[in-house]
Every structure is written in C-alpha cells, then in structure tokens.
Design goal:
The structure is a homodimer.
Chain A lengths: L7 H11 L3 H11 L12 H17 L17 H14 L1 H21 L5 H8 L5 E4 L15 E5 L4 E5 L7 E5 L7 E10 L2 E11 L11 E5 L11 E6 L2 E4 L8 E3 L5 E3 L4 H10 L2 H26 L3 E4 L6 E3 L4 H32 L6 H32 L1 H5 L5 H8 L9 H13 L14 H7 L13 H10 L11 H30 L1 H7 L1 H25 L4 H21 L1 H6 L5 H18 L3 H8 L9 H4 L1 H4 L4
Parallel strand pairs in A: 1-5, 2-5
Antiparallel strand pairs in A: 2-3, 3-9, 4-8, 5-6, 7-8, 10-11, 12-13
Helix pairs in contact in A: 1-19, 1-22, 2-4, 3-5, 4-5, 4-8, 4-9, 5-6, 5-8, 8-9, 8-10, 8-22, 9-10, 9-18, 9-19, 9-21, 9-22, 10-12, 10-13, 10-18, 13-18, 14-16, 15-16, 16-17, 16-18, 18-19, 19-21
InterPro entries (chains A, B): ACOX_C_alpha1, Acyl-CoA_Oxase/DH_mid-dom, Acyl-CoA_Oxase/DH_mid-dom_sf, Acyl-CoA_oxidase, Acyl-CoA_oxidase_C, AcylCo_DH-like_C, AcylCoA_DH/oxidase_NM_dom_sf
Organism (chains A, B): Nocardia jiangsuensis
Family (chains A, B): Belongs to the acyl-CoA oxidase family.
C-alpha cells in the first residue's frame, strides 16, 4: 500500500499498527481489493449467500485458509497469520468474514483441536471446501449458559453408535451459520450419556445433509431467515430426532467412549474438562474482536475522509464555509474513537502474538492459556463495544449520506451489530473477566457453576492479589515510577496515567471482593452477586482498560521513526484522557482525582483534539484500510457532496 | 385496549401517558392492529414501497389524513389529533409513518401553510392521494444550512414564469421521500431571483412526473436506492434543468412576485422571512420526535416481555434458572430507559398541546410560536437520541434472538436510525436550542447567519436572563420551595430535583455566554464559538432535560388514581436519579453535588430498579403498545425460547 509519494509518518505508523503479521496484511490488501471480494448489498439474502460461498472458493486459492491448520492435517500451521489473514476479509465484507470464520475457524477449529488422528481426513476436506460444516453449539434455550445445553448424545453399545436427539423445543440448535443451506456436517455440542450417566457437554460430528442438500433422516434444518445484517451468512436451526452416528464421530481428544460404552478422560473433573474443551476454541473469540475493530476502522476512515472535505455553515468573519472536521464537536466525536482504534489495534496484535506462541508450542507456561482466555474475552468485549459505538457515531457524522447503503456505513453497522452478542454476550464475558480477577485464577473455581464462584470469593479467598503475569519490563518500570504520589503526578506522564488506570482496577476488584464477602453470609451468594453485579462488571471493564493502555504503551515503544512515535504518543494521550473523562465521576467520587484535575482532563481532551486536527488524514491512512476497499460513494463522488462553485 | 380483567393501575397509567388525545390513540390501536398495516420485512424495497402506498390509500379511508388540514381546505382542522394519529402509525410500521408524514405532513403542510387560496385545490387532492407530492428541501451539498441552498427559481416576466434550475452538482435535491417513484409534484425550496436580485429561499410547486410516472421535460429524478432502513420509502434525487413553472406556483403566503416581477413581502427582513417560513413547518419536527419515542416503546415492550420469561444460568442456592429481569445488570439496562420513555411521553403530549393551541388560534401570544419551535427542536433531539440508544440496548438485551428480523428489533433500529439526522441534525438542533437560550430570544438574533449570533452574544447581550414562559403554577411553587439550600435538600423531594436540573442549566448558559464574551474579542466569533461548542451543546441538553422533568411532574399531578400515581412517582424518581447519575461528574466538578450525594444517587438508582422490578410488565403494558402490534416471534413462541421441561 505504501507508495513513493506517501508521507513516511503514515508508512511507519501503519507498520506499527500492522504488528507482527504486517506482511500478511499487506498481501491481503493487494489481493482482497478485487471487486470480486466486495459485498454486494443489492443482492437478496439467497443470492448473497451463494456469492459468499463462491468468494470462499476463491479464498482457498490464496492460501488464507491453510494457515489455520497444522501441517499434519494439511495446513501450514501459522495460527497468528491465520487470524490476521481472516481479519483482513472484514475490510472486504463482513458476511465473507463470518462465513469463512465459521468454516475454517469454528468448525475447522473444533475438528482439528477436539478431534484426533481419526478425524484428520475431515480437516483436509474442510480446508478445500470439499466438506462444508457448521458449529452447532448454541440452542434456542441456551446460549450464554453452554453447560446447560439440552441436546443429548446417548451411546448405544449394541450398535456402537451415539443417538443424537433434541429432547425439547428449546433444545433446537439455533443461529447456526451454515445450517440453513450449505453445511453438510455439523460439529454438535451435546450432553454425552453412556451407561445411563451424563458426562457433560462433548462435541460430535453429525452429517446433516446429503450431497443434494436434503436433510438426512432424523435431521430437520430450517432457516433463521432475515437478520439485522450479514445477509451472506445462512444461519439456521437444526432439530435432531434420534439421529444415529458412529462411535468414532465423537471428537475424542479429551474424552472417549470405548466400544462397550466405558467412558474415559484424561481430565477427571467434568467441569474442568468442559472448560478445557472451550479453551481450545479461543481463536474464535480473538477473531471476533479483531473483525469488529476492523469494521470500526473502515467506518472511521470513511467518516474522517468525508469530514475533511464536507463543508457546512459559514464562518461569520470570513464568509467561507467551514469543513466539518474543523468543528470542535465533530473533532470530539471522531478523534477519541480514532485513539481507541489505535489502542485496540496494539492490544489485538499483542493478543494474537500470545495466542501464536501458545499454539505453536513456544509458550509452555501452564498459566498462559488461562490468561489468554481472559484477555481474549476482555478484548472481545472492548472491541465489539467500540465497533457498535464508533460505527453509529460515523453514520450520524455523515448525516443523510451516511444512511444510504451506497456509503457503506449502514452495512457495517448492521453486520457488526451482533458482534456484541456472539462468541459470548458482552455482559457475560465481562463477568467472566471479573470472576477471574476476583478469584485470582484459583484453580478450583473454574469447576464451579456459572455463579458458584461467588461462594468461593465469599468464603474462601483471602485478600485478592492480582497477578500481573506477562508484563514486560517497560510497564514494570513505569509502574514502579508511578507508585509514589499519584495524586501529585504529572498527568502527561505515562507512569501517572498507568497508575490511574491500575488503581481504579485494584480498588474495584478489592472492594467487589469485600462486598461479596460481607453480603454473602446475610443474603446467600446469588443475592450478594446480584447486588454487586454492576460493581463487578465495572471491575472487569477497568481491568480491560488497563490491559489496553499497557499494550498501547508497549506498541509505541517499538516505533523507531521519531515523527511517527510523537504522533502516536499524542494519540495515546487522547486515549488516556478520554477514558479518564468518561470515568471522571468515578475518579472523583473515589478520591483518586481532584475536581481540579478532572477539569484539567476535560481541557486536555480539547487541547489534544486540536493538536491532532492537522493529522486527521494521516491518522486514518495509517489505520491501513486501502482507499480501494472503502467503497463509499460519497468519497468517490466528492464534487457532488460539496459545494463546488 | 383495556379489558375487564386488566389491572386498573395499567388503565390509569396508560390514560395519563396517552394524554389529551387518548381517544385518538385508542381508536388507532383498534384500527391499525390489522395485519394489512404491518410492515413486511421480507419484501424487497420496490415491493415495500408499493405496499406502503397501498396502506396509505387504506389510511385515507380512516380519516387519519383529514385532521391535518383546515376545514376550508377540505380537512377537519385538528392539528393535535393529526400529529397523534400519524404517530400511531409508527407502531405498525415506520416506513408507513414516514411516507404518510411526507405526504400529509411535509408536502401537505407546505402547501397549506405556505400557500394561499390559489393552492387550495392542491390540498384537497393531496389529502385523498389524488396528488402525490414530495418535500424537496435538502440538497446533496446543503442539509443543515438550508439558507445556503443552491437551487434557483428565476422569474421571467416575459412569460410570467419561474425558471427552476440546479446550477451545480451539489444543488441536486437529495434524500427526498417520494422523489424516486411516486411523487408527481415537488414542493421545491429554492433561491428566488427576480429583477436580478436574490430574495432568499422560497417554496415553489414544481410538477416532476406525468401521469405515467415519467420525468417531465427538464426534470431528472433518480433513486437513492437502498438505505439503512425504511425500505418502504422511495427516497430519491431531483435535478432541474431550466424547468419553467407558472408564476402562481410560488407558495405566496409570506411573499409574492407580481406579473412584472416586482417582489413584495409583509416581512421585510429576508432572514426573518425565512425563519417564519420554516416556523410554519414545525409540525414535522414534532412528529419525528413522537415517532422516535413510539419506536422506543415498541422495542422496550418486546425486550421487557422477553426478559420476564427468558431464563439463563442457575441460582447456585436453589439450582433454579433465573429470569433475565431478575439480574441487576438487566434491570439497570432497561428500567432507566422505561423511565425516560415515560418522561418523554408526557413531554410530547405537552408539546402537541402547545402546538394545537397555537395552530387553532387559542394561543395568540406572540412569543409562543418561537418558544414552541425551540421546544420542538429540543424534544426532537431528546426523543431521537433516546430511540437510538434504547432500541440498541433492547436488541442486545435479547441476544441472538434480537438479531433475527422476525423479532422486529433490528427493523426498528434500522428504520429509526436516520431520525437523529432528518428534520434537523441533532447537533445542529441542540445548538439552535442553546442559541435561543444564550440570546434570550433577542429578536434581532434570529436574522443573523448560522453563527452570527455568537457576535451578538459577545458584544451586545447583557447578563442572560432565561425566560421561563408558560410555566404552570405547580412548577413555580416547587421552584420557590427549592430556592433555598439546595445542597441540603432532600433528594427525594421534587423541589430539590427540579433545582438540581435548573441550576445546571442556568450555570451552563451563564458561563457559556461569559466564555463567548471573553473570547470573542481575542479570537473572533468563530473561534470563540468553536472553542465553546461542547459547552454550548451541553447547555442546550441541560435545558431540554429540565423541560422534560417539568412536564413529567405536571403529568403526574394529573393522575387521579393513587396507586397509578405512586408508581409514576417512582418512575419519575428513576428518571431523575439516572439523569443525575449520568451527569454526576458535572455536578461534582461544579460543586452542585457532594461526593456523598453522588454516591447516594448511584445507590438510589439501584434501589429504584429493585423497587420497580415487580411492576415491569405493568409499566410496559401502560406504555400502550398492544400485544397484537408487537409482532415479535420470540413473544408468540415463548416455549421455544425458554427451557420447557
């Protein structure tokens, strides 16, 4: 994307934001700008689904799918490059990203990671799309609470088969991408029953359609029909009526059933087994966050490029019309969102790097996987929340033009809207992050039910000690520096900023634990939890904010070009100041900030957006969405949208 | 809608929320629940447009259109009932509401209110849909800044015609409902030029299509195509190439051109003439706010009815699954939005009543019209902002089910999304409200350009004295009571609450004026304005909040049933507490609230949502969206969405 005439600051900043898999991103920018990968919003959902499937067949030729899988399964074994490569599809079209993610990420990931040698052939076939699959976890009755899924897979030793069955109306598999039309096989999550005993949720490969696309006996699929967005994804429902599958279709990496029905597992505790199973699927959650952030970058690129040319109202002194980007209100709308996008880009790169090290065997620390899961959950929340807010703001900032489909913002909005829900509802995931903080990763807690950990916190835990594993030296040094006299610290110093973020997290986690302990005796754990739920969620959010700031600081340190680094520093300041401004009430109420300091924060935001104004285009160009992939008529047809005399 | 078995609290509350035109609402509930008025999201936009037009023909049979027009024009002359009656269409389908509003509200309103006797026949024909029209104000280059429209209407005395022309690409009329397909005539806003002199923006009737639907000579219409929502509205573009229309097609209520080209107007100042013209069209803005609030009520009804039955995760003590509405986080998501919906319903009823009194000649006070315009602008902002936020929250609160079109929330979201933009962008309107406050309605200010008023504030105005016209005795009494010792006042007392809202507004307006004065000398008016823009917008918002609280209090005072009144009082408390919570940082930073009080506010919100929990269904039933109009599959098919064993 870089050309000889490009401002070197843009090139350097983009390099930093692109992160460790920059080459993958550059390659994708060149390959995916082709019209054939773009979404076509004029198609009805039937045609859109067919188009996306066709696009996926093109994608397989580019090697983007192969990276997701290990060499022994026919892939190239590059998990980091795999996630980044798929993420780039989001610039082209989010339906294409979702359907590719379902096939290679969710379905493929389940078969590769939960299966064993005997399932290897399926992986080979799904990479090339010879086998189209779907990931049938969610049921109409249970989405967030996956441990309570109702579908059963009962082992019959007489025939050495599992009988897959939907015992109630709410056991219906629902919202399953691929189930409405294209998938011929489903990775079905169901309660495994053998010898009359339930062994918890396991994953099974269940053929659902024949080669003509007809439902197989006992399988009834149906179509979820129209959705808010993602027209190219064929979400649907599956009901099983005593469907028999061979014993070997159990994905048996963590547990197996012998021909006689004997159940064995290397992990004895059923709940831990379940969480280990889910943990291997962490890549899905990482990918959703990345794609949401990519969608926000596209929207911000469109809104800023429009705002620097669109004029409205005249300066009474000069009589000249003023461009939108020169209005303070418009700057305050868009620049803090750009700053957050920068912050999240660094956080996502760091997250993918951690995942890559673990999944390629370079990080063997036992605690790393669990820390990764927590971080992935937290960043999924932050990035999808950001996308929902940023894209909405961009739509409104482009006025009536923003509402036309030809300007893409409404499609981005509609397509990303469900991201706050899928791969884990944001409220539930924030709670999960907070739970991990409150129990300081105590191993036994993982095995408790959804809310059982509250009792643990209330009765068992001593003072909560937050582990800060994996912190690089830079952050440690800054922290040590910030330890004394935060109240007096210079707000422009990173050490002070970091201390303000970390203190908020510490305080919230500590007091939440205290509240749970104090109340649980009186009211029982559920009441105690519920009364503190808001507090607990805030603690989770504060933790995520702190992680994001740390990776932002680390990311900047790696920028060599001094001009690019200086600009990134200003953007980081704006991220810090606008986050502090959003939480000003909390900081003052808890005496971490004086009223005077809070006022300084507000002034600081204004000064920073002023300072960044001349760099508006540089900042969005560095985000790295090629102009050729923006596909917004208001940019290509600027003369019409602006007074042209 | 009330039945013999209905809880009387619901009946009484609904009566209060229904307001002065409750009978119109009741009638509409019965008539519009018919399937034939519902939206059909499975239609493509061509078919959706045809369906809506057909629905409008049915609507004319119900007398809903007639109320919009004066008796001498063939209507029944009931402006209040007209706005309320149209608003009820929003429960059925927002495309139907918009297209009806364009025909009878905008186009019809322009012809009736800006035209004279010679245009009467057009009104008769547009009521019955014999004449389909559109309202061609916005251009691609200018939306918010209507005074700078580029389309020209140049008088040619030789033929006694106006020549309507689009001189630049950006002069193209755009986003015009009806322009893409159905309208045969446009009310075109254009710069009137006669004798070589420009006289500012006036409105002209321009035939654009023949009876076969073909563009007339010199007219080029085109289709805006797909939009974020509102598929049933045929938005389009119009370009004029020297189109000739008779002199009589000038809507000449406020200005006329004689056959020889002489220009006359009863209003000498061109800017004041323009604002008087716009002022007669206030009904459009009032209607948009009402429809947005109606959309939010539909969404909240769906989300709450789902939340009281949908279960997820078990209480560890009992093992029973917990309904969503019992979670604190869910209560905090939905109840404050319900409270705001209540507040806005009372505010809208009050607004419509004021409009009705003015437009039926019962309120002849010269200042009332201008106060009405300000209030309409403010409530349009508050209601459309609320709708955007509430519908988004409801979608997310219903999880994956919320994303399916069959559950309606995504349609509500997509359809209302542009409401923050049309009939005045919310940022621009908030600024307009603030401008009126800052200049204390000084008459000369209205005639200044968009930002010229800043110079007025900076150089002319003395201390700003806020006029509080039209305040009823109840509010005055409460205010007098609250005047002393606000800081010590009991937060549960209305007088204290009102004082907190009013003090915030007063302080913000006063300090904004001070800032403009202090800075304008140094930097010039634009810089002064721009530096304070955020402050100015906050002042506008604070004003709107205060008005909403006042009408809420007045509305409650009219509820006779003690149980219904008590419940409404609790809802009002929640509106107050959650508004204070949102602005807690401001209150503390400006010493209007101690840290302790701010903490009490936060606790208060929690206590109030707890207290309202048992009345969740009562509260949404009282909002008055009949179950038969909700049309969300997740409510009709509850057994599937909930664990049913």
């Amino acid at each position: 994307m870089s050309t000889t005439t490009e401002n070197p600051v843009i090139t350097h900043l983009r390099g930093a934001l692109d992160g460790p898999w920059g080459a993958v991103r550059e390659e994708a920018r060149a390959l995916l700008a082709d019209e054939k990968f773009a979404g076509d919003p004029t198609l009805d959902h039937k045609a859109a689904r067919a188009r996306v499937l066709e696009q996926m067949r093109e994608i397989t030729k580019l090697g983007i799918a192969d990276r997701n899988f290990r060499r022994e399964n026919g892939g190239t074994g590059e998990p980091g490059a795999a996630v980044v490569g798929l993420e780039m599809l989001a610039y082209a079209d989010l339906s294409l990203w979702v359907k590719s993610g379902v096939q290679w990420g969710l379905f493929g990931g389940a078969v590769e990671n939960l299966g064993t040698e005997r399932h290897r052939e399926y992986v080979r076939r799904l990479i090339t799309l010879d086998l189209l699959g779907c990931f049938a976890m969610t049921e109409t009755g249970h989405g967030s609470d996956v441990q309570s899924l109702e579908t059963t897979a009962t082992y019959d030793p007489a025939t050495q088969e599992f009988v897959v069955h939907s015992p109630t109306p709410s056991a219906r598999k629902d919202y399953i991408g691929g189930a409405a039309e294209h998938a011929s096989m489903a990775a079905v999550f169901a309660q495994l029953i053998t010898g009359g005993e339930s062994r918890g949720v396991h994953c099974f490969l269940v053929p659902i359609r024949d080669s003509d696309g007809n439902d197989l006996p006992g399988v009834t699929t149906s179509d979820d029909g129209l959705k808010g967005g993602l027209p190219g994804v064929d979400n649907g429902r599956i009901v099983f009526d005593q469907v028999r599958i061979p014993r070997e279709n159990l994905l048996n990496r963590y547990a197996d059933v012998a021909p006689d029905g004997a159940y064995t597992s290397e992990i004895e505790n059923p709940s831990r087994r379940f969480f280990t199973t889910l943990g291997t699927l962490v890549r899905g959650r990482i990918s959703v966050g990345g794609a949401a952030a990519a969608g926000a970058r596209v929207a911000l690129s469109i809104a800023v490029k429009y705002a620097v040319q669109r004029k409205q109202f005249s300066d009474p002194d000069t009589g000249e019309e003023v461009v939108l980007m020169d209005y303070r209100a418009h700057q305050r709308r868009l620049f803090p969102l750009i700053a957050k996008s920068y912050a999240l880009a660094f956080a996502q790169n760091d997250l993918v790097r951690r995942m890559h090290l673990i999944q390629t065997g370079q990080d063997l620390d036992a605690s790393s996987q669990r820390a990764l899961e927590k971080r992935a959950a937290g960043l999924k929340v932050a990035q999808t929340r950001h996308a929902t807010r940023a894209i909405q703001e961009c739509r409104e900032a482009c006025g009536g033009a923003g509402y036309l489909t030809e300007n893409r913002l409404v499609t981005l909005k509609a397509d990303t809207d469900v991201f706050t829900t899928f791969e884990g509802d944001n409220v539930v995931l924030t709670q999960l992050v907070a739970k991990e903080l409150l129990t300081a990763y105590a191993d036994e807690v993982r095995d408790l039910d959804a809310l059982g950990w509250v009792r643990f916190v209330a009765t068992t835990a001593g003072d909560v000690v937050r582990k800060r594993s994996g912190v690089r030296q830079l952050i440690q040094t800054l922290r040590d520096r910030g330890d004394d006299a935060v109240d007096e610290g210079d707000l422009s110093r990173r050490s002070t900023q970091l201390a303000l973020f970390a203190d908020r997290e510490d305080y919230l986690v500590r007091t939440a634990a205290h509240r749970l302990r104090a109340r649980a005796q009186e009211t029982g754990p559920f009441e105690a939890f519920n009364n503190a739920q808001d507090h607990i969620l805030t603690a989770g959010t504060a933790h995520i904010d702190r992680l994001i700031l740390e990776t932002f600081i680390e990311g900047i340190a790696d920028i060599e070009d001094p001009d690019a680094r200086t600009l990134a520093e200003t953007v980081c300041d704006l991220f810090v100041f606008s986050t502090l401004e959003e939480n000003a009430d909390w900081y003052i109420m808890h005496r971490f900030m004086s009223v005077e300091r809070a006022k300084a924060v507000r002034r600081g935001v204004n000064e920073l957006v002023d300072r960044l104004r001349p760099d508006a285009l540089t900042l969005v160009d560095a985000m790295g969405v090629p102009d050729s992939m923006l596909r917004a008529a208001l940019l290509s047809d600027a003369s019409v949208y602006d007074r042209s005399r």
